[in-house]
Each structure stands twice: as C-alpha cells, then as structure tokens.
Amino acid sequence: VNNIDFNLQGGNDVSTYYFSTSFYDEKGIIDQSYFKRFSTRINTEHKIKPWLKVGQNLQLTYGENNGFNNISSQTGLLFSALRFNPAIPTVNDDGTYGTSKAFANQLGDINNPYSTIQQADAYNRKYRAIANVFAEIPIYSDLKFRANYGFDGTIGRSYSFNIEDQNQARQTTSSTLTEGESDSYSHLLDLVLTYDKVINKSHITFMSGYSSQSYRGSFFSAGKVGYDDTSKGQRTLSKGNAFLNTDGGYDDPWGLESVFARGFYDYDGRFLATLTFRADGSSRFAAGNRWGYYPA
C-alpha cells in the first residue's frame, strides 16, 4: 500500500484557506488486482465586507480498480480458485495454462483461475466532484441570512474484454468487449433566516427557511463480439464483428422541496419550549398529493 498526503492551510482576519491532495495505491492479494484513488480538497472563506461572508468547499476524486468477476459461482475468480483441482498444473511446461480438458474433465470442469487473472483486461473508473458555496449576511446583530448551494456529480466508466479461450473447460468461444458509462448529478439549495436574541434570562431563537434538491442520471452500455485481432490496440467497439448488446436510459429524475420554521424559547436554563413546522413536497408522490405537513 502506498499512501501520500499533502496539506496546506493558512489565512488572516479576512480570508482563510485549506488545501489537501492525496494519492492512495493498493495492490490486492489477488495477482494484478489493485485500487487507486486521487483526491483534492480546497476550502476557502472570505469576509468581503463587514456584512458579507462567502465561502466554498470543493472536493475532486478519481478512483479505479480492475473489477474481477467474483460473483458467478461457476466462472467467478474466487469460486474458481476454491474449486480448481490442485492436481492440475496452473502452467504447463510449454507455457500454456493448465486445464481439466487435458484430463477429459475427469478432474472437474472449473476454469484455471491463474489463466483468468493473466488474461483479464478490465477496469472500473469513477470521477466525482462535490462542491458547495455559501453566502452569509448579518442583517443586524440578532438576525442572519445564509444561502447555500451544493452540487454532487459522478461519472462512471467500465471496460471489460474477454479473450477467446477454448482451452478451458468452460470455454469462451469468441472474444467479446463490453463498455459502459453512467452519470448522475444532484443539486441542493438552502435558504435560511435565523434570529437569535438573549433578553435577561430569556433566550429566543427562531429559524425559517426553504430547501430544494433535484437529481438526474443516465447510463449507456454496448458490447461487440468477434475479434479477429485481439492485440491491445484493436480492443475497441469499432473493431468487433457484431453487436453483442446495447442498453441505455435515464434514471428517474426526482425533486424535493421543503419549507420549515422552528421557534425555541429558554428561560434561565430551566424552562424550555420548542415549536416546529415543516412542509415537504416530493415529485415521487402522485400529482395532487405531493405535499405533506408536519407541525410539532
């Protein structure tokens, strides 16, 4: 495992900043398995005017792994390793991979896991950005307004090339390539007004606000079969002989809206009272019945 971190922070009475970046690289127990992650974070706050403070938080990440199939009980890598007959050599003297076919499948019909590892050509990649910006305005000493906007976006990409291998018990009769891509985006807006006042032994706090959130996403995948040339440079969708499958679509977009208010009263730390109310609406509910009201 390799892990490298770098941090830098500073500031003054007007501005503060924080910057960090990191790199994480882990080699798995399974040969050629790995996980990599790069991440960067930038946070800043600025007091532009005596009555205005703004800030932002930004985080960018990239992750990658090679995604072995560990799901199938027949051809999954871990299941093959557990069930492959140890009497069969992983590599023959001539450099070819051992197979139960050499023993007329009398020693089982499980594929050689070492062969699977060495011929694997696949990856999963994820790019993500999380951002937040805010502005805070003290209207006067006891009343403050804050606006906040947040964004969360993710792009995922996958690639898997299965090379033709008719030497193993469970044959791959023709080379196939599958590629996919997905994306999702979420937006969040918060507007909050806060009143906070202390009068002798009484402490009064009132907060009201509005919040909205939306989401949308999409995905696409395609596969080709039949590769006469399986060299690395030819493993693209345009080089396949026939379409294996295509799929794509949109995730159901949705939105949420909320209006809320809360009042809090404290007398001398002994008597407390709280009143709250919120109204929540969701696009996932049926038209005409999308709002709920919750007093307390």
Description:
This protein is mainly beta and 296 residues long. Helices cover 5% and strands 62% of the residues. It has 2 helices and 11 strands. Strands 1-2-3-4-5-6-7-8-9-10-11 form an 11-stranded antiparallel beta sheet, with no helix packed on it. A hairpin with a 3-residue loop joins strand 1 and strand 2. Helix 1 runs antiparallel to helix 2. It is elongated. The model has no long low-confidence stretch (mean pLDDT 92).
Q: How would you classify the helix and strand content by structural class?
A: mainly beta
Q: In terms of per-residue confidence, which ranges show pLDDT below 50 for 5 or more consecutive residues?
A: none
Please count the beta strands (DSSP E, at least 2 residues each): 11
Largest sheet: 11 strands, antiparallel
End-to-end separation: 52 Å
* Radius of gyration, whole Å: 29 Å
Question: What is the molecular shape?
Answer: elongated
Strand content: over 45%
If helices are DSSP runs of H or I spanning 4 or more residues, what is the number of helices? 2
Topology order in helix (H) and strand (E) letters: EEEEHHEEEEEEE
Helical coverage, percent range: under 10%
**Strand order in the sheet with the most strands:** 1-2-3-4-5-6-7-8-9-10-11
Mean pLDDT over the residues: 92
